[in-house]
Structure to design on (484 residues):
């Protein structure tokens, strides 16, 4: 077979088909392969008919159809399937060829795979791809990381097919070594969990707290999408609330309240625990999905545990305005925590992350795209070593000016008996972060009392550790000093 294709793609599920069509539409001839070979023929004779596609019926045929250095995108299920496919490609490829994992792989797997593939003389890329089915076809957000030598070869293709900002900038750039690309995509997904749960909590307060109809909520989200909350998730929530089926029924009310998840949110929280980062909002978003999943248990508990949703008594329009302010402030906290996690991981894994550039990658194509992200890019342009978004002048002012409304919302949710775990945990983080003294002094005393874990003192330099014989029976032996 002639080496005629600029790039190859394996895995013709929804994302694979759409990315392949996107690549071809930008002028790059492409080869495709699928484990179920019949899908190759169905695709090339269907959606891809008449276009510059080459459908291969075996892996050797697929590899030989590609120009050197070969560039191969793998879009298969994360985990074992990726490792197995890599092993199949290694004997078929040559030094300098590039394997690209475009799935949602765990970043530590990508670190391992990069090292393994490079040891065989090939190059490896782990790229996060966000935007769903439509984004894959029209332009996703892409977050590549891995072997730096591979980037110049894939850059022209990736930056051609990715989404663009309103200013025409590509929502794709080099993230960093080994697993950096998949890590940033993982954090993106964690923030996505948080954004979605925040919107759901606001929706619940409107629906059950204020007794608003879907049409009334649709009108509110329509207005919100014209201002500072303008984003893809606000936009689709607006559309969902107005959608009716062929019988005129409002579909959102027919959907079971039990949420699924694929694991990237859990990975984000696990990574935060590993690096000691307080990713409280995203953690609550993950646990909110877990709680929703025990539907039958909740239904039974509702019959046993007395408690009811209260009736809102107050200025309804003012409270709706408060909800918008609380949502915006909480969203800022979500991103602040996500960026804190990326900073910690960059230190752990020795990545040189471009934080403003990451915000740019998220400006278009991805699920969390919003006008809000432009302000994050500006924040890191003002101060590249910014420690926390809450310390930037724009975000500090934005949150501070909304905290009264935010507190009213959290208080009202409590009075009404409606859960608002992300709205309230975001506020708790804000209050904790701005506190120059927290009750951890008592916690350290407790740890020293029962385990001789030692503590530091406010009247002594950091790094000096002390122990008190609280009972008179403990002696002077201590445990290892703690890690902050």
């Amino acid at each position: 077979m002639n080496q005629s294709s600029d790039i190859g793609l394996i895995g013709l599920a929804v994302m694979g088909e759409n990315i392949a069509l996107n690549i071809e539409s930008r002028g790059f001839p492409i080869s495709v392969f699928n484990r179920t070979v019949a899908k190759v023929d169905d695709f090339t004779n269907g959606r891809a008919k008449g276009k510059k596609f080459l459908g291969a019926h075996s892996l050797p045929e697929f590899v030989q159809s590609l120009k050197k250095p070969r560039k191969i995108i793998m879009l298969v299920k994360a985990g074992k399937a990726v490792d197995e496919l890599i092993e199949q490609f290694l004997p078929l490829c040559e030094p300098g060829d590039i394997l690209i994992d475009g799935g949602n792989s765990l970043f530590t797997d990508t670190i391992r795979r990069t090292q393994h593939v490079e040891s065989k003389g090939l190059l490896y890329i782990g790229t996060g791809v966000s935007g769903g089915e439509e984004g894959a076809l029209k332009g996703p957000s892409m977050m590549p990381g891995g072997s730096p030598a591979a980037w110049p070869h894939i850059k022209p293709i990736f930056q051609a097919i990715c989404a663009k900002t309103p200013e025409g900038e590509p929502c794709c750039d080099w993230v960093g070594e080994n697993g950096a690309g998949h890590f940033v995509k993982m954090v993106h997904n964690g923030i996505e969990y948080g954004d979605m749960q925040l919107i759901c909590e606001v929706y619940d307060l409107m629906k059950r707290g204020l007794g608003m109809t879907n049409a009334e909520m649709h009108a509110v989200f329509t207005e919100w999408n014209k201002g500072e909350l303008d984003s893809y998730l606000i936009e689709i929530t607006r559309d969902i609330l107005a959608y009716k089926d062929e019988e005129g029924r409002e579909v959102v009310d027919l959907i079971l309240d039990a949420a699924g998840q694929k694991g990237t949110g859990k990975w984000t929280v696990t990574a935060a625990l590993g690096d000691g980062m307080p990713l409280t909002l995203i953690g609550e978003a993950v646990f909110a999905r877990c709680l929703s999943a025990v539907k039958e248990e909740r239904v039974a508990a509702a019959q046993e545990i007395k408690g009811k949703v209260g009736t809102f008594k107050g200025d309804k329009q003012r409270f709706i305005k408060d909800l918008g302010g609380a949502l915006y402030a909480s969203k800022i906290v979500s991103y602040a925590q996500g960026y804190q996690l990326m900073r910690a991981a960059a230190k752990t894994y020795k990545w040189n992350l471009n934080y403003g550039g990451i915000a740019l990658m998220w400006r278009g194509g991805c699920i969390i795209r919003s006008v809000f992200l432009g302000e994050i890019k500006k924040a890191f342009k003002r101060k590249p070593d910014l420690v926390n978004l809450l310390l930037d002048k724009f975000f500090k002012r934005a949150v501070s000016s909304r905290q009264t409304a935010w507190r009213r919302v959290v208080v009202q949710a409590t009075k009404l008996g409606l859960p608002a775990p992300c709205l309230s945990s975001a506020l708790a983080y804000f209050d904790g972060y701005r506190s120059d003294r927290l009750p951890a002094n008592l916690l350290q005393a407790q740890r020293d009392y029962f385990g001789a874990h030692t503590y530091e003192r406010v009247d002594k330099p950091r790094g000096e550790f002390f122990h008190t014989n609280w009972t008179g029976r403990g002696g002077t032996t201590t445990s290892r000093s703690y890690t902050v």
The beta strands are 7-10, 30-33, 53-55, 71-74, 98-101, 123-130, 141-146, 176-177.
